[in-house]
Design goal:
It comes from Salpingoeca rosetta (strain ATCC 50818 / BSB-021). One of its GO terms (molecular function) is methyltransferase activity. This is Methyltransferase domain-containing protein. The protein is α/β, with parallel strands linked by helices. It has one domain: Vaccinia Virus protein VP39 (Rossmann fold, 3-Layer(aba) Sandwich). The chain has 10 helices and 8 strands. α5 runs parallel beside α6. The structure holds S-adenosylmethionine (SAM).
């Protein structure tokens, strides 16, 4: 009896997902489908929590490396001051580089941020965060989550299509970047532009969960070029996508080869099979869908 119930619920989840997709036509595909998910309040992917693989990566890899770089920079700065009497460079007085970059807070951007649980988590970990989503309702929910968590100050949320991001001028130094951010935050500027912008080559982490496997179906080279343009040299691309080693049960799937080929222009750090975190909808399946956790560097 239990099995029948589980089968029935599983079928209705897949049917609901397919119905939502099938009622879209080609021209609406990139937008209408996503608005309908939020209109219906049917968000099968949404666990309400940051992805466990992101938490693992941030706490065990990214932040320890960032802190080590900060310590190394501080030590170099102290030696320089001791031996030459010169002031050591600071984030606001020198150009971007691996060492000086570590003296500021890391910057992350999530494309397709949904209701913002991962953005809020990143902000709580000390990142300056930008969340982008096509759907205004998603962005409103993300903003509310950030306010509730007390991290709105370090989060910017944009309603935008990933293929048409509002690009700011390239900022070549941290001080240029900070100046640009301050200008964007001025109320008259917000009124003039309607929203903030994203700065090319300024992010230390581009995070994607279940969005790349959607956007690659529209223009794979295009979206990968967007990710590359967002990242500073050496910055991390972290993606969680559907994995074709099991039949598709909701999220679109791709093979390891397809994922590696898409990011061939990046340095591959790791590509590991994993599972998406449990959500109320995935609870009707025997286990959450299989995923790839791909980590690359620009
Ligand atoms: C499967 S959901 C994943 C949401 C979030 N990353 C999470 O894991 O909870 C995909 C998200 O991408 C957004 N999206 C789809 N196409 C987009 C586009 N062209 N530009 C920006 N966001 C897009 C959708 O509105 C949706 O919120």
């Amino acid at each position: 009896m239990c099995q029948i119930k589980s089968c029935h619920t599983r079928r209705s989840f897949i049917e609901q997902t397919q119905q939502t997709a099938e009622t879209t036509n080609m021209s609406e595909e990139a937008t209408g489908k996503w608005h309908r998910y939020y209109d219906k309040g049917f968000l099968p992917w949404d666990s309400g929590k940051p992805a466990s693989q992101l938490v693992e990566f941030v706490e065990n890899t990214f932040l320890p490396a960032w802190e080590a770089a900060t310590a190394a920079t501080a030590a170099t700065a102290a030696t320089t001051t001791e031996t030459t009497g010169e002031q050591a460079p600071t984030a606001s007085s020198s150009s971007d580089g691996a060492a000086t970059a570590a003296r500021r807070r890391p910057r992350a951007i999530e494309i397709g941020c949904g209701t913002g649980a991962s953005c809020v988590y990143l902000a709580q970990q000390g990142f300056v965060v930008t969340g982008v989503d096509l759907v205004a309702d998603a962005v409103a929910a993300a903003k509310e989550r950030a306010e509730h968590a007390g991290v709105s100050d370090c989060c910017t949320f944009l309603v935008a299509d990933a293929f048409q991001l509002p690009w700011a001028a390239e900022a070549h130094t941290d001080s240029e970047y900070e100046q640009q951010q301050q200008q964007q935050q001025q109320p008259q500027q917000e009124e003039a532009t309607g929203d903030a912008a994203v700065t090319p080559h300024s992010y230390d982490l581009v995070y994607d969960c279940q969005t790349f496997h959607v956007l690659r179906q529209i223009d794979e080279r295009g979206i990968v070029a967007v990710y590359k343009r967002l990242l500073r040299p050496g910055g991390y691309m972290f993606t969680l996508t559907g994995n074709a080693d099991e039949p598709e049960v909701g999220p679109s799937v791709l093979t390891r080869e397809e994922l590696c080929r898409a990011f061939a222009d990046f340095e591959q750090v790791s590509v590991q099979p994993s599972r998406f975190d449990m959500t109320p909808t995935y609870a009707s399946l025997s286990q959450p869908p299989l995923a790839w956790c791909g980590i690359f560097r620009a």
